[in-house]
Amino acid sequence: MLDTDILITGAGSAGLTLALLLAKNSPDLQITVLEQGPAPQAGAVSLSRVSALNLASQRVLDSLGVWQLLNAKPAYQQMQVWEADSFARIEFATSDLGALDVQSGSSSPALGWIVDNEELRCCLYQRAQQYPNIQWKFDARIQQISASERQNLLTLADGSAYISKLLVGADGANSLVREQLKMPLAFWDYDHHGLVAVVRTSAPHQATARQVFLPTGPLALLPLADPHLVSIVWSVAPERAAELIALPAEQFNQALTAASQSVLGVLSVQTERRSYPLKMRYASQWVKHNAVLVADAAHTIHPLAGQGMNLGLMDVCALAELIVQNISTGRTCNEQRMLRQYERWRKAEAQQMIALMEAFKRGFMLQHPLAKLVRAVGMAATNQLAPVKRQLLAAALGNQGDLPAVARPGVISL
User: Fold this and answer.
1) How far apart are alpha carbons 56 and 404 in whole angstroms?
2) How does the average pLDDT of the chain come out, rounded?
3) Which CATH code for domain 2-186+279-407?
4) Torsions phi, psi of 78, nearest 5?
5) Exposed e or buried b for every residue in 14-51, given b needs 16+ CB within 10 A?
């Protein structure tokens, strides 16, 4: 039976970032990471699933020495959002940022970066292996989890067992920690699937992230390192997603080019097309005894604003900050007051983001002519108001809000 201070289930980006933050700032902590799959293996970047990282997330990864390890992290300097069948449109550029963040770690200003999820995970694991106070267990099939006021007991299918002071569920949207500890979950189905693929464009993307709102759902075009490659996230009804995946490549290319309004010319799919269901999940309880949820185990949101990864990374930064503060003052890593403080802090941020995404999605799904007119006028007016645009950007890019210390900017100008 292995006894550890903090047991993290899930070696995704959130779980690995938490392990790194704790190991770096509290070297006496004993940390164990369990992962049901194999260890991350460095290799060619597939770009099968990518995430948009904002400035706050970039600062965190830079502080951990991970940012420098990423090979594929193309920046985007502009964003364009518009509605397909109205004059609603808004654009953002680095010139809207005001003063540059002096701690950005980048030689040029950017609104964000596109990273390959698996490459990020590999780089986090590579860095975390340098800390002897992190222990690893891969291909770990969890059989039973119990949490009490004193400790947590977790047993695996191979008969091994782990006791921990604090159990962290970083095991994704279908969290076994959340399920076995019966932590209540609210959710609704967006009735959409996200279709993802890498696409070649005939016109250069010019380091611009684009999103067009169609009557059937949004289509995002995320710029990659190659000036003629983008990663798409196309939100459509499940049956339409199945149809699009089944189409011959030529017909799919025609449908995608039409949906994008040929903004990047003729589009040509380069990789396998995949889709996944889009659901909002929100755990109403994030702490139970000495167990706590983070990132996708606690919440998932619609990908239309690309904030899912950023929200999860801020969760683990907040939890790590509070744990380190507690330990530095002679308290424990599982003190209930501290865990409740984390829950209140990050619940408020998650609730705000969920509400914003839902309002955004529902607002654009309204197809009444008056609703379209109001949207178009509002977006056009916002596009002309520099102070308002800077406020919107500051919130989206991680330069505003109740951020963990490691994610805060050096300079904010609004």
Assistant:
1) 9
2) 88
3) 3.50.50.60
4) -140, 155
5) bbbbbbbbbbbbbeebbbbbbbbeeebeeeebebeebb
Reported pTM: 0.90
Evaluate the CA torsion angle 314, 316, 322, 325 in order and state its sign: negative
What are the CA-CA distances from residue 175 to residues 18, 163, 297, 310 (Å)?
17, 19, 5, 19
pLDDT tens digits, 110-123: 899 999 999 999 99
72 and 46 in contact (C-beta within 8 Å)?
Answer: no
Give 232-292 as a DSSP string: EEEEE-HHHHHHHHHS-HHHHHHHHHHHTTTTTSSEEE-S--EEEEEEEEEES--EETTEE
CA distance 332 to 325: 10
CA-CA distance, 376 to 87, in Å (whole number)?
A: 6
The residue ranking higher by pLDDT, 180 or 301, is: 180
Place of tokens 């109740």: 402
Query: What's the CA gap between 227 and 236, in Å, rounded?
Result: 26
> For 317-351, how does the pLDDT look when each residue is reduced to its tens digit (9 = 90+)?
999 999 999 999 999 999 999 999 999 999 998 88
Q: How far apart are CA 363 and CA 372, in angstroms?
A: 9
- pLDDT computed for residue 411 by the predictor: 40
Amino acid at 265: G
- Summarize pLDDT for 55-66 with one digit per residue, the tens: 999 999 999 999
Strand 152-156, strand 112-116: pairing: unpaired
Break the chain into its structural domains and give their ranges: 2-186+279-407
- What are the C-alpha distances in Å from 253 to residues 35, 220, 265, 267, 364? 38, 15, 11, 6, 25
Six token digits for residue 77 = 């300097």
Q: Could you tell me which residues come within 8 angstroms of residue 205 by beta carbon, excluding any fewer than 6 positions away?
A: 221, 223, 224, 227, 228, 229, 230, 264
Q: What six digits make up the tokens of 258?
A: 């039409």
Q: Which of 115, 208, 167 lies closest to 4 in space, CA to CA?
A: 167
